[in-house]
Amino acid sequence: MKTPTLVATGAALVCAVAASSLWVLDAREVALVTSFGAPVREVTEPGLHVHAPWPIHQVLRFDRRARVLAIEPTEMLTTDKKNLVVEAFVVWRVARPQTFLESVATAETAEARLSDLVVSAVAAGLGHQQYDDLFNVVEDGEPTVPLLPPSVLEQVAAVALERFGVEVQDLRVRHLGLPMQNEQSIYGRMRAERARIANKYRSEGEEQAAAIRARADRQAAELVAGAEREAGAVTAKAEQAAARLQAEAYRKDPQLYRLLRRLETAEAILDEDATLVLDSESPLLSGLQEPTP
Question: Which value, in Å, is the radius of gyration of the alpha carbons in the chain?
């Protein structure tokens, strides 16, 4: 009876040891395998893993999901010694479990250390920017210079990974404000800049309108000149035709032609109610006095 019991007990122990040696890492985690408290290896690949049974090996798990840390508003100086109130945020996650455990151990401590690192790096980055450049904008509404140069993120990411074992995925300025004593002067400068842009657009519009009017006036003048040339040509043709008719009439009946010309002359020099006294020898009466053949 003792032999089967011992066999069963041994089998149970083997199964227990085997079960304690197998473990599964979730895709949202990273892990650190330790031996009596000393780090053995980091595990970052999700799936089934094997290690020596407890208490020889232990597995410490860390959440590897990205976290967003909002940095408290902090007053900083530009290169020309002007004050700014800056709010930033950083996106981070655990990347090196051993470094993380040895340096900060908890997410709360990591975020406190990260906050100090980010404030220092952002202050250094803004310390190379001119105060006016940060608030001047171009026509599309974007600042004339970036708020943070790319080197700031690169510097923070490198230091955070080396010192704290965390990966900084993003770092941005969420809000750039002004101390109360500086707001009015900056707002006035921004209004002046917007007014300059508006005046530029207005001036360009007036120039375009003037060009359109000048082009329209030139086209109208060309049309009028063309019409006058055509009218002159028509008038000249009409006068030529009239001259030919007059010449033809003169050839057919010279005396009648002279009479009609005298009458046209009399009509041209007399008003509607005028009275004209003529000598009997006047050429104007000669056609009326002489009998027509």
Answer: 52
